[in-house]
């Protein structure tokens, strides 16, 4: 049995980037051999194991063959006879199809090193076209490595085009798609992800709602990445101005996490009003703060302020003083204390009403001061 480091770890090491998770391929072993050595299977019938002390993944060398539509429509063949070269052949990109042995020697049958140096994202074999997830993966790698000068080889883009036109993208599960999309959004140049999807015809299949968008949403998204904003802010920035039905449709299509959907919906609903700042007037401002539940979810409103600020910057406008105003307004209503009202004798529904009035006064006071 021989074990090799493979995939992202080898690639990133050669690029001089930090390596976070290491994957291994095992040649010449059976599943029983792995169990005997104390490795834990990740699933009942998948030839991948976890090494308990390190938590790293060890996969038996395998070949794959397409058997149906979409991700999962694969039969694999893992056996001690499968060679390292055969295993590397089933991988998506040449830069992901390199291995390293114990002595640090590189095994690179498909030109990964040359493509790393030439900054090419290039498919390993025509079988690339058997898995639609690879369209998203390649777009994601482009979003990650574009700053280093990487681009997609023309023949690979052509295969991505074919996949997009084949109807296979629709067969991807929401979970699998969102995993790639969310990771792409968190890359350094997320706008490249959407540019690649556009270039290969996948945007209209996966995100038809985005096709009519102007450049400013991608600019906002890109600024959000530069400011290292969280996923929620990036998702909301991308969808801002699409209208709630589209925001909802997209969020449900990919079963996005609740925080992402909520921020995107609320941002879409309130950004226009929020952009007027104190000019909006005390009551609508308070209603907006209530809608965000700024008392229990202060972070969510701060993220909304970021979404607004990024949208303004994307249109070449100054985000201040608006961002400061919104931030201070939230602080003003949150600063209204309940205790004095209770001490003044309010209770039950009357207390709720008094609290509302006190908050409205706080907003009105702030507006007067800021005007
Ligand atoms: P990351 O840094 O994002 O983890 P990675 O290259 O390690 O990048 P993984 O998803 O961890 O990506 O997969 C490990 C390796 O398995 C890849 O480098 C690639 O060789 C192979 N691989 C993963 N998913 C696919 C796929 N859908 N098609 C072909 N090969 C794949
Ligand atoms: Mg990995």
TrEMBL record:
Lineage top rank: taxon: Bacteria
InterPro entries: CCA_bact, NT_sf, PolA_pol_head_dom, PolyA_RNA-bd, tRNA_CCA-adding_enzyme
Keywords for this protein: ATP-binding, Magnesium, Metal-binding, Nucleotide-binding, Nucleotidyltransferase, RNA repair, RNA-binding, Transferase, tRNA processing
Keyword Nucleotide-binding among record annotations: yes
GO molecular function: transferase activity
Function according to Swiss-Prot or TrEMBL: Catalyzes the addition and repair of the essential 3'-terminal CCA sequence in tRNAs without using a nucleic acid template. Adds these three nucleotides in the order of C, C, and A to the tRNA nucleotide-73, using CTP and ATP as substrates and producing inorganic pyrophosphate. tRNA 3'-terminal CCA addition is required both for tRNA processing and repair. Also involved in tRNA surveillance by mediating tandem CCA addition to generate a CCACCA at the 3' terminus of unstable tRNAs. While stable tRNAs receive only 3'-terminal CCA, unstable tRNAs are marked with CCACCA and rapidly degraded.
Protein name: CCA-adding enzyme
Species for this entry: Pseudomonas quercus
């Amino acid at each position: 049995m021989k074990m090799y480091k493979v995939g992202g770890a080898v690639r990133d090491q050669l690029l001089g980037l930090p390596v976070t998770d290491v994957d291994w391929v095992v040649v010449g072993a059976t599943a029983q051999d792995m169990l005997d050595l104390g490795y834990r299977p990740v699933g009942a019938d998948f030839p991948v194991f976890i090494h308990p002390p390190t938590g790293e993944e060890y996969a038996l060398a395998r070949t794959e063959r397409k058997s149906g539509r979409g991700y999962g429509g694969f039969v694999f063949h893992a056996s001690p006879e499968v060679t390292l070269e055969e295993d590397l052949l089933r991988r998506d990109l040449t830069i992901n199809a390199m291995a390293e042995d114990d002595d640090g020697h590189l095994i690179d049958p498909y030109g990964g090193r040359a493509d790393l140096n030439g900054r090419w994202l290039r498919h390993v074999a025509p079988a690339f076209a058997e898995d639609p997830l690879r369209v998203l993966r390649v777009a994601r790698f482009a979003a990650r490595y574009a700053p280093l000068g990487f681009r997609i080889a023309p023949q690979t883009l052509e295969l991505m085009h074919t996949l997009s036109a084949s109807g296979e993208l629709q067969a991807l599960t929401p979970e699998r798609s969102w995993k790639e999309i969310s990771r792409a959004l968190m890359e350094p140049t997320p706008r490249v992800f959407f540019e690649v999807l556009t270039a290969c015809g996948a945007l209209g299949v996966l995100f038809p709602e985005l096709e009519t968008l102007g450049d400013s949403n991608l600019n906002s998204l890109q600024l959000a990445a530069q400011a290292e904003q969280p996923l929620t802010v990036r998702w909301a920035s991308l969808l801002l101005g699409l209208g709630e039905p589209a925001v909802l449709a997209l969020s449900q299509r990919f079963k996005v996490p609740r925080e992402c959907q909520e921020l995107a919906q609320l941002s879409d609903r309130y950004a226009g009003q929020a952009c007027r700042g104190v000019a909006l007037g005390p009551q609508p401002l308070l209603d907006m703060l209530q809608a965000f539940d700024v008392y229990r979810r202060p972070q969510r409103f701060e993220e909304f302020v970021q979404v607004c600020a990024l949208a303004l910057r994307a249109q070449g406008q100054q985000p201040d003083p608006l961002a400061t105003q919104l931030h201070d307004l939230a602080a003003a209503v949150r600063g209204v204390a309940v205790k004095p009202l209770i001490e003044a004798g309010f209770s039950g529904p009357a207390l709720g009403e008094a609290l509302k009035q006190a908050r409205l006064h706080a907003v009105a006071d702030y507006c007067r001061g800021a005007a």
